[in-house]
Amino acid sequence: MRACRDALLIVFMAVAWGSTALAAETAGPSFSCATVEAGSIEQMVCTDAALSALDRKLAEVYGEATGKAANERPSVLKAEQRGWIKGRNDCWKAGDRRACVEEHYRLRIAELQAKYRLVPSIGPVRFACDGQAANELTTTFFETDPPTMIAERGDEVSLMVGQPAASGARYQGRNESFWEHQGEARVTWGYGVPEMTCRKAP
Fold it and tell me: Is 104 in contact with 112 (CB distance < 8 Å)?
């Protein structure tokens, strides 16, 4: 009887240890923390549950994007991801390192979800700018966090991220901006160029 109890105890301890190890592995980031440098951004991610969760989410989204990019330009996607990792690691220069890292993760996840159409979207919605039907802006809005949109004008494409606004919907890209309210949008397309007034096309 005692031997049976001892055997059951050993089995229970083995299961408990395995569950603990699995939970620890699941709670960590997508990369190994065994060789990260002390004080590095990677170590911060390893020791922060919320950042680790964002890293796992990014790994999941990146995997989905890689599948979509298989017949497109997978090498470009990989190069962009390497550049993103470098940018994330440069957060050691920021005043608030954690906030910088979190923002980098959230923006990268949203960017990939929008670019590779991995989340629900609204659109395309077309706008005629400055009263000219030929001067058309085509927009698609994505249910990401933060919200994103992809705007197309001619052969140019801009991915923009939602910004706080007192009214309407406002998005900001690299050198482009879009602020829409009640069917009318004020759009800047390029650095230092005049603002356009765009209205939804019928």
Answer: no
